[in-house]
Amino acid sequence: MKRVVITGAGTINALGHSVADTFTAMRDGVCGIGPLDIRDVDRLQIRIGGQVKGFEAEGRYNRQQMSLYDRFTQFTLAAAREAIEQSGLTFTGELAALSGVVLGTAGGGVSTWDDNYRAVYEEGKNRVHPFVVPKLMNNAAASHVSMEWNLKGPSFTVSTACASSNHAMAQAFAMVRSGMAPAMVTGGSESMLCFGGVKAWEGLRVMSKDACRPFSANRNGMVQGEGAGIFVFEEYEHARARGAEILCEVAGYAMSSDASDIVMPSKNGAARAMAGALKDARIDAADVGYINAHGTGTAANDKTECAAVADVFGPHADRLMISSTKSMHGHLIGGTGAVELLACIMALRDGVVAPTIGYQEPDPECALDVVPNEARDAAVNVAISNAFAFGGMNAVIALRKI
Amino acid sequence: MTVKDQVIAIIAEQALLEPEDVTPDSTLENLGIDSLGLVESIFAIEEAFDITVPFNANNPTESEFDISTVASIIAGIERLRAEQSGA
Question: Which residues in B lie closer than 8 A to residue A216 (C-beta atoms)?
């Protein structure tokens, strides 16, 4: 089995248009959640989100590209450029033939669906743009990354709701670890902040109208975000041989399925995924310094997740730090695990643990060190990143300092 | 149909019971309606009465809309209809 390291990272999200800007915002506990600026927002009950601001597709992409790139693809391509340029890899020859792209998204081109349904149903048009299908398909972003960077190996898109990115990164990791691919581009993206996307979530009655306050006793729901996180996973010796800068090691992962309820989380499923990731990575639970929580800010998730952490870590649960950065960037749904992996990298590399902002009242059912409101300096050698999706599908990734 | 009869019909359908089995002092819990069933019931009530029910599944007991019994739901709907009429 090969060792796997991260040699490139890129992002765009409500906290920043790059990894550096996102780290600065996480360090400063910035809240990227605010009033939604979208069409027909006055017909929504939920009017806040972690929206990406100042990202203009015009000027960044040409007319032909714009007709093919949904916003989730635009985010992906921007983040992929940052990650691949940082890695310094050029994909040619055998490296190109073996390296691929595995990305996560829950909804794919949601705003393309939304715009075109509006055109045919509301505006009564009988014709849509010829590229609607290639623009909205869930694998569009992965395909455009492969085309732009000449990645000709195994490439596909994974869709497991809120765990999509973690499942995608788990697949990429497994491919590099097994020796199938020397490098993989992976992560995920989401762009659901359009009228139809928010309206659908609104129906479930789990969204907050004012803020995402994970673990706080007065939490009242989740807040959607948007954006992308993209990484270059590379075989360790391959990275070392070319003198690449290594951000951290991906040590292991596990996936589990609750097989119980379509929306309610399960302590057992979450615990099995965390314990499985530690076992796969051969990490002792006592070595874990930081958990990037799924921490959605819903009543159900946060207490279930904390109970699962207590089960897996025993007395060590009271010594480790666990925070939810969704309080800052919102819940990026299928892209969330990718952006949250950044908080793990920051903890391992820079020794800065991102806070859970908006924390106001302790909840006895979430009695862990949730790093409330302010980032903390701490030496962290091992971090894990949790994602527990609707449908009961869980994926946890374990990372190690290198 | 009165508001009471309509609410009982909606809740009975959700609980897979006959309307006669749903009484004003029934609670959703003892009718076997879970959290998803509750969200669906609220939706059905909003559609039936053309009202918006202030309800957050994260803290159902703290919402302004009292869902503790069938009677409290009926009272809440009557209040909302009065408040939201013409809206």
Answer: none
